[in-house]
Specification:
The chain has 195 residues and is of the alpha+beta class. It has a single domain, classed as Cyclic Phosphodiesterase, Chain: A (Alpha-Beta Complex). The chain is 29% helix and 25% strand. Strands 2-1-7-8 form a four-stranded antiparallel sheet, with helices on one face. Strand 3 and strand 4 form a beta hairpin. The chain is globular. The N and C termini lie far apart (54 Å).
Length: 195
């Protein structure tokens, strides 16, 4: 019998390698962080049927980067030196089937700046065959049934209608080790973009 999203456990969702994040500035980071913290507390229970882990608000520019820390950091520095600062525009709430890391998320518009940054990252890290880029900011991770994802979307849409149309500038790349579960993730460093 096939496993449904409700029968999966949090231990099955693990990251791989390193990821490069676009971290929102303070004025957008703090309200998004508040939402993630609240949902994490609200959708975790003692018996682990649902266990939404905490993570920092971010847009993944590219992930699954393998290699030594020094090699990945050197390529990230090279990448940052090729990208001008750019604007990010959020585009509303969404939900995507039962993918753990895209349970409920805020869409990010595919502006020229973010698409160009992703294309350059694919070239530098030799990941041209990655799936189509879908920039987003996750609000909760987990294997939740559709009715719960829809409830989260509805409640957050009513509670924070303006938040999901923010726009802000990205001036640096943040390299993170995203191996294993979220409690083991850690920041490696920040790399300033071209001003």
């Amino acid at each position: 019998m096939a496993e449904g999203p409700e029968s999966k456990t949090p231990s099955q969702a693990k990251g791989r390698g390193y990821s490069i994040w676009l971290v929102p500035p303070k004025e957008a980071y703090e309200p998004l962080d508040d939402v993630i913290n609240r949902l994490c507390a609200e959708y975790s229970d003692g018996n682990l049927r649902y266990q939404a882990p905490y993570f920092s608000p971010h847009i993944t520019l590219i992930g699954g980067l393998m290699g030594s820390r020094n090699a990945v950091a050197a390529k990230t520095a090279q990448l940052a030196s090729l990208i001008d600062e750019f604007e990010v525009k959020l585009g509303g709430l969404a939900e995507l089937s039962d993918e753990y890391f895209k349970c409920v998320f805020v869409k990010v518009q595919k502006t020229r700046g973010i698409v160009a940054a992703n294309q350059t990252a694919r070239r530098i890290f030799e990941k041209k065959d990655d799936p189509e880029y879908m920039p987003h900011i996750s609000l909760i991770y987990g294997f939740f049934p559709k009715n719960i994802r829809e409830r989260i979307m509805s409640e957050e849409g009513q509670r924070n209608p303006d938040m999901f149309s923010y726009k802000f500038n990205i001036s640096r790349l943040t390299l993170c080790l995203t191996e294993d579960t979220t409690d083991k993730w850690s920041k490696v460093g920040d790399f300033d973009l071209v001003k």
